[in-house]
Every structure is written in structure tokens, then in C-alpha cells.
Amino acid sequence: MEEKDCIFCKIVRGEVPSKKVFEDEKVYAFHDINPVAPTHILIVPKKHILGVQTLEPEDECLVGHMFYVARKIAEDQGLAPKEDLKGGYRLVFNVGRDAGQSVFHLHLHLIGGRHMGWPPG
Ligand code: AMP
To answer: 90 and 109 in contact (C-beta within 8 Å)?
Structure first.
């Protein structure tokens, strides 16, 4: 998928509408159109990267930033784990079709607001 045809690049550029949660110079975060939990937010880099499977050494800081942004959004959404061990959220990268990846632009799922089982399906 080339950058010009990529749905998440179009969202980042404002060509496709999205429900924005957060934006800075490196990342854009928005509500998933098909949520699997009460909170389901996607954090995507503005740079077009196909997925974890094509990460380069130069992307290491960017991926770390995605996790930090996810943590801050989770706190803003009231999802941070509490001292009594209640609360919490899941951060997921699906890598490749067998793992459930359907959009080939790197994205971190932030999912929360309900209990989640393990192992995932
Ligand atoms: P994955 O299956 O891991 O590649 O995740 C892709 C996610 O993108 C899915 O959860 C979709 O529901 C979501 N998605 C696809 N198109 C859009 C869109 N236009 N706006 C918001 N979320 C989208």
C-alpha cells in the first residue's frame, strides 16, 4: 500500500474524517471506527510505516513515543490500573494478516473499559 492510497495516511492528512483524541508532530490518535471495547483508540505515526514487520532502527524512538502517548491517553480516559489492581487496558500491535492486521500502516491499539481474557483469540 502506497502512502497516497493508505487510509491512515489520509486520516492523518485530514482527507478522511476521524474522531481525533490526540495529535503532536510525530503521532495522531483517533477512535477506532469498529470498537471492540468501550474505549478503542488507535495511535498511528504520521510517517507511513507498513507495520512492526518493517520497522527500522531509526524508528525505535518513534515506537517508544507511541507507547508513551498511549499511556497518557489511557490516563486521560480513566483507564490507568488502580492500586487495588482494578482497571487497566491492553496495548496491541497486530503484525501480519494471521495476527489480524488489516490496515498496513503501523498502529497501536489502546483497548479498555471492560475485562479482557487471556489468551486472545
Ligand atoms: P488491524 O486489524 O490491527 O490492522 O486494525 C485496523 C483497525 O483500523 C481496525 O480495528 C479497524 O476497525 C480500524 N479502522 C479501519 N478503518 C478505519 C477508519 N476509517 N477510521 C477508524 N478506524 C478504522
So the answer is: yes
